[in-house]
Amino acid sequence: MDRTYTRAEKVERARLLLKGAKGAYGDISGIERRIDRIDARAEERWAREQQALAQQHERAKDEVATAKAREKAAIGRDEKRQAKQTLRDAEKRLKAAERAFR
Questions:
Q1: Confidence of residue 1 (pLDDT cuts 50, 70, 90)
Q2: Contact between residue 35 and residue 13 where contact means Cβ atoms under 8 Å apart
């Protein structure tokens, strides 16, 4: 599974790996447990971030659909121009959300 580490977690994990490598002939179960806890937190963080990105992506798709409907229902030159601009902005946000979600 993918993981998202904070800067402090990366440093701590690297330090623990080095410490484990130096003491490879002894008991390193405590070090392994600490690394596993760091990995578990990173996996949980990654899952939450992916869920949030998926929700953001869905909201952006809904926003584009709403903007398209407004554009179709617009009456008058100014209202149509404003609806088109709103649609363009919504499509830009959707593309950004798609890039972030990948």
A1: low
A2: yes
Distance CA 36, CA 23 (A): 17
79-82 contacts, C-beta under 8 A, 24 or more apart: none
Helix (H, G, I), strand (E, B) or coil at 71: helix
Cβ contacts of 50 within 8 Å, gap of 6 or more: 101
Express each pLDDT in 44-76 by its tens digit.
999 999 999 999 999 999 999 999 999 999 999
Domain boundaries, the chain: 7-101
- In this prediction the pTM is 0.71
C-alpha to C-alpha distance for 75 and 59, rounded to whole angstroms? 26
